[in-house]
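Figure 2 data, in text form.
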Amino acid sequence: MKTHRMLREGKAMSEMISLEEARALVLSHVRPLPVETVPVLEAVGRVAAADLTSDIDIAPFAHSAMDGFAVRASELAGASPESPVELDVIAEVAAGDVFEGVIGAGQCVRIMTGAPLPADADAVVKYEVVDAVSGDGKPGSRVAFRAPADVRANVREAGEEARAGEVVVGRGEVVGTAGVGFLASCGITEVPTYRRPRVAVIAIGSELAAPTEVPAPGKIRNSNSYALAACAQAAGAVPTVLPIVEDAHEALAAAVRSAAASYDFVVTSGGASNGDFDFIKPVVEELGQLLMTTVNMRPGKAQTFGLVDGTPVFGLPGNPAAAYVGFEMIVRPALRKMQGFSRFERPVVKARLSTDAKKRDSRRIFLRSTLSKDEAGGYVVTPAKNQSSGLFGPIQRSNCMAILPEGLESRTAGSVVECVLLDVSEEIVL
């Protein structure tokens, strides 16, 4: 087994591997983080690390589903427009109150939504279809029913949603916004969930300046750190932007070693190619295990992955689009696995190209694009005119990435391609 693993990892280091192989390699080296217990409101969007059970029946009692009149259905069996059944209103029960009296023959109780169903009643007739014979429909009035009522009509039964001791959110289930309310109704105020990964974000480059600075000649602002930190945060992680590191082996080695000791995952940008000032690969190899260097994709061929003291370290290219695509396609799935998620790929839809897409590179190409619908309701995708890997702007204005598969086959307008939906949860199944 160990030999096979070494051979596989050796292949990954020496050859350009597919995106699927890269993702599988990275996922194989991460695991869910330890469990922590958080207040239920902080659990939204996170994965339950244990089965959660209700302490009571939900609902705890049978109650009215609407404003109306609580009745015995048998009394209305013969009701019709021509021969209505008249009943006396003897009481009114609001939500939070309990009617403890007796409903006799020829009687009914005015009831509000959520109020417990009186013991003698077995149905509720909504207020709007009942006519007042005398009075205003409140206690002391007489009302007429012009149709029969089904037994248990407009009644929400005790235990309809859950029984005491029943699992209401299972281990591995993502807690949604409605789930927070559901858990609260079940008496669950704290949720065990996997800890969010702490992610160190390091920008590499002597040419970089802080966003607060006006760049001097030859300098550019550090935008990658902020984009990647935002990507990490959107993935559920807790990012920290660390200081810029100059293009120097020793400086980068010290920064990576320190970050690996303090964080759960380290992401760098820049210095991932094979130039004289590209040091992330030799640094990872020097400090730990270098497992991957290139992936068959564009943008983002240069993708460095390895372990330093057991901590995953991922080196992304310096070009903004390349860094973004690499993060979305490979790093994001890893961060999700660390949080206990089981789905790792964004939803994909098929769409017709609105324009020709020429292919001069055999790698799998991700075109920053806009997805829309035509008059017939079909998906149409329009790639951004500028596909430069050095630009964030086209990504900001895109909602998907259109995929041109490996090979040199160009696509003409009207051709069908797959599109990865950005900012759409992996839990969405299309």
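Caption note: Residues 320-338 form the longest helix (19 residues).
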